[in-house]
């Protein structure tokens, strides 16, 4: 594609977005290179690969990836594609294995990626073949943040912690609330839908506004009307780096089920001790999006990835995250709640999916593409929130979406990480971690 200025397509100053970014296949191809092959992408929760030999099959962008727990406890991420003809060497969603045999011609790889077996090697290749040159391609960077495993193809990328910047402060509300950390339960729910991955990402990064309309009928049917219909005190937080968070403020936290409420009450003091009262008291954390394609909701609580599958298709993978020490009965209530609302046939999930699907239909036409979309909403919040890092906007604001698209354009325009800003550098973050260990 000829050089395009992507900042002109997403004018975050005026709040205008060119619809072509949701439909042009050339832009999608460049996203795979400049966004997905450079960003820290979520692979799996550590609880999915606890033991040596455990593996989990996922994707980074459009590339199939095997996450493997090694004998020494470390983790490797390998391109799940045979070096002979490209067949997937492992087709199970997850499991435990010391090696993977490609079922096409039988090349066999260890779970650290070395090619260990080639049928009829001497008959086919004489002595020319160098097995050591034909191992599985390894993702060079793998890092873990409080149970979440991430990887990055780009050797020049900042560390995961630098990439997260202030956003880690908000991740901790989910990941570090109590002793023992989190785990995922109930497997991974996966489904395909029509839509562009960025519409899902921008909604989870910054859209408290849609709930009043999109989810109102489900909320009324389930007795949640008050929770979303008539309460307007809240904030949207642009956490930098395209990452965004939203919350209701100034009201007691609402729990759907008394047993869940009782658990959170019983652990409230522990939460204050671990992460301080600013994040623990009087704020109901609602949604978060980590650039580019990881998102979660605290209330349900679902963790999800928007795997891109072309400009107008998304493969959603959704997990239910719980605290390890929750009583089993509470975990089960949470799992069912998560599934009923945000599984593929969940009441709230269907509301969102239908919107993204019709947006794809509405944005792709020749005439429609001449008219930009409006991302201009936002005003100052009702009071200052200096306790929270990041830029704070009113609850009905599209500042996080504008920030996400500004980040998207920055990465799409850049030739390398040398031209991309790093949220966690050049200052100490809100948790007091100095931005040391920063490469020039
Ligand atoms: S494609 Fe894997 S052995 Fe031929
Ligand atoms: Fe929604």
Sum up the structure in keywords:
binds FE2/S2 (inorganic) cluster; globular; Rieske Iron-sulfur Protein; alpha+beta; 440 residues; disordered C terminus; binds fe (ii) ion; 26% strand; 15 helices; Naphthalene 1,2-dioxygenase Alpha Subunit, Chain A, domain 1; four-stranded antiparallel sheet
List the topology elements.
Elements: H1 6-9, E1 10-11, E2 16-17, H2 25-36, E3 41-45, E4 54-60, E5 63-69, E6 75-79, E7 94-96, E8 99-101, E9 108-110, E10 115-117, H3 121-125, E11 141-145, E12 148-152, H4 160-164, H5 167-175, E13 182-194, H6 197-206, H7 211-214, H8 216-221, H9 225-229, E14 234-240, E15 243-249, H10 258-266, H11 268-275, H12 277-280, E16 283-290, E17 294-297, E18 302-308, E19 313-323, H13 328-342, H14 347-363, E20 373-374, E21 391-394, H15 399-413
Antiparallel strand pairs: 1-2, 2-20, 3-12, 4-5, 4-7, 5-6, 8-9, 9-10, 11-12, 13-19, 14-15, 14-21, 15-16, 16-17, 17-18, 18-19
This protein binds FE2/S2 (inorganic) cluster and fe (ii) ion (FE2).
The site of FE2/S2 (inorganic) cluster has 9 residues, from loops.
Structure description:
This protein is an alpha+beta fold and 440 residues long. The protein folds into two domains: 41-143, Rieske Iron-sulfur Protein (3-layer Sandwich); 165-419, Naphthalene 1,2-dioxygenase Alpha Subunit, Chain A, domain 1 (Alpha-Beta Complex), CATH 3.90.380. It has 15 helices and 21 strands. The chain has helices at 6-9, 25-36, 121-125, 160-164, 167-175, 197-206, 211-214, 216-221, 225-229, 258-266, 268-275, 277-280, 328-342, 347-363, 399-413, and strands at residues 10-11, 16-17, 41-45, 54-60, 63-69, 75-79, 94-96, 99-101, 108-110, 115-117, 141-145, 148-152, 182-194, 234-240, 243-249, 283-290, 294-297, 302-308, 313-323, 373-374, 391-394. The strands form five sheets. An eight-stranded antiparallel beta sheet has the order 13-19-18-17-16-15-14-21, with helices on both faces. Helix 2 crosses helix 15 and helix 6 (197-206) crosses helix 15. The longest helix is centred in the C-terminal third of the chain and has 17 residues, at 347-363. The chain is globular, with a radius of gyration of 22 Å. The two termini are 31 Å apart. The structure holds FE2/S2 (inorganic) cluster (FES) and fe (ii) ion.
